[in-house]
Protein: 2-oxoglutarate-dependent ethylene/succinate-forming enzyme
Organism: Bradyrhizobium manausense
Amino acid sequence: MSMSDSVPTIDVSRFVHGSPSERDAVVRQVAETCERIGFFLIKGHGVPDDLIARTYASARSFFDLPKEEKLEVKRIRPEVSRGYNSLADQSLSRSMGILSPPDLQESFNIGPLNAGSDPYFTEGFGVVHFAPNQWPKRPSDFRANATEYYSAMEKVSWQLMRIFALSLGLEESFFDGKIDKHVSSLRFINYPDQPLPPAEGQKRAGEHTDYGALTILKVEDAPGGLQVRDRAGNWIDIGYLPGTFVVNIGDLMMQWTNDRWISTLHRVMNPPLDAATSRRISLVFFHQPNYDAEVACLPTCASAENPAKYPATTSGAHWRGKNQAARNVKPAEEKVA
């Protein structure tokens, strides 16, 4: 099955600027796709090409710095997702309970830009989810580009959550109060060239699901890319389509919808061994609702015949559990499956 057959491209500008019938068509298409595979591409998102290009350029310049300089802004604590993460310092498959070698990637993370001063942001779990961002000294435009890109992703994700609400038979503003103090992360991921074969079972990113409500991904046209698994167990390549973002739903939407929508297992594969160059950089926005937002079965997704399958949790509790598992990378000598 090809990507175009199973992963549609949806023009979200029709929801913002279209007629009522065009808006309804977008809502129906999103609902059908989230039930079937949980992945789709969007165009008409309004994010300027120039901003994407500038963000890519500054990310590439940062990863090209000497390792010692990158480590000046290293992630300080495993539970705080800010700063630089060294190559092969996590295994995403472990968040699924699957023992696997560390992933062949390095990354840099930022979080919310405008934390307040009241206890919600500065005490308890606010210390974790609203930890200060770290910023590299070089390149000089890194902070400005990352900040602008993060703000653009906030706008896109807000609109997508409104489409999601309507797709689930809810008021358009249903999720607004659950994401107005969101704790989303923007991650720049560098998948370097692989001059040597990886270890057995080692990938650029092991199979996993995303932890939050939705993810917005920008990819490059380079060897070794994203694959998603459909409900029948088939792995489908997600190729590069200019002008689009890849969107997938995360664990929280799957739990909110009582498994009506699927948080799809996905992975990033290694490039072919004969690829002359295979470096790949991805820009990933993980949209995570307010850390205290309750995630319980939505009223439109349960019935006497289909009761709630998951106990209620919070956005933050789910993220913290998954993050801890992924960061608990075992010694190299441990036997892996």
